[in-house]
């Protein structure tokens, strides 16, 4: 049902999200003949370009980031590696939107997608009190994970400060405090090293021993990770945590931090206490802050009305890794194996081709 005060706009394709995957899909749709603002609409919930990168903390420099893959036909070049990654990506994505003439609509958050009952999908979007409804022959969902931070449940109650990766701003905020960093992935490792550099006392906890791997992070490694994740999403399962699929590739600075004791996990949390945590080995630590570097889950709440979830918790994705078996009008990019920046570009191309086929078939009919 449309909102009573919302205009109803017809588009051939609506793209939700203007991160790497959404911009890549929009590029290939435009190359396929769709005109932004006429046949194609790109909606983004963020107030500025940059996708999830626009929320990263100041101290995460481009050199510390895991690499930013070029957008299609628009090389990033060689920006200053000491500049905050957030600012580099905001500038780069913004320039791309202008170069492509994508006319991204922001900050418009898609709240629901449902079947209109007569062919197109009905897309509800909001910007504060304002509302818009779209009828779309095809929909590409590129909403990523940033909107769904994951915090595991533990018994007990901690009375101190708690925050998640997405809430982190600067290491200086924790001077004079003792910080428990929770999580076994790269973000946790980066936080521990960053806090150490600013003389912040830390304790590291992981559910299982850190999954260090001795191998080069190259294209072949990326392909293997994507295949591992694809085997899950093609079965309708959730992709799992990033580190469960990638492991923690060793670096010389990590080895040095292990030797110093900074990157040595205390093991699993048994319960939270008012001023600290009890560990599974029976030990206890007093801390002032808990930083949950425990990852994110796919942001798919807007698709709930379509009832696409499988018993395994995920979406049943076809072999192209973007088409949904239960809903041929919908494509997901930046989901499962295309969650990496390299995979997102390829997924954007495949989703655009699929969406264009739907649009062309409808035109012929």
Question: What are the defining features of this structure?
Answer:
alpha/beta, 6-stranded mixed beta sheet, 15 strands, 7 helices
Word description of this protein:
The chain has helices spanning 20-31, 85-100, 186-197, 219-233, 242-246, 252-260, 341-364, and strands spanning 8-16, 40-43, 109-115, 121-127, 130-141, 161-164, 178-182, 201-205, 212-213, 248-249, 269-273, 276-279, 284-286, 289-292, 330-332. With 365 residues, the protein is α/β, with parallel strands linked by helices. The longest helix has 24 residues, at 341-364. It has seven helices and 15 strands. Helix 1 packs parallel to helix 7 (341-364). The model has no long low-confidence stretch (mean pLDDT 90). It is 25% helix and 21% strand. Strands 1, 2, 3, 4, 5 and 15 form a six-stranded mixed β-sheet that branches. A four-stranded parallel β-sheet has the order 6-14-7-8, covered by helices on one side. The protein has a three-stranded antiparallel β-sheet with strand order 11-12-13, with no helix packed on it.
Count of helices?
7
Principal-axis shape: globular
Assess the beta-strand content as a share of residues. Answer: 15-25%
Ends distance: 26 Å
List the secondary-structure elements in sequence, H or E: EHEHEEEEEHEEHHEHEEEEEH
Helix content estimate = 25-40%
Question: The biggest beta sheet, please?
Answer: 6 strands, mixed
* Count of extended strands: 15
What Rg, in angstroms, do the CA atoms define?
22 Å
**Structural class computed from helices and strand pairing:** alpha/beta
Provide the residue-averaged pLDDT: 90
**Low-pLDDT residue spans:** none
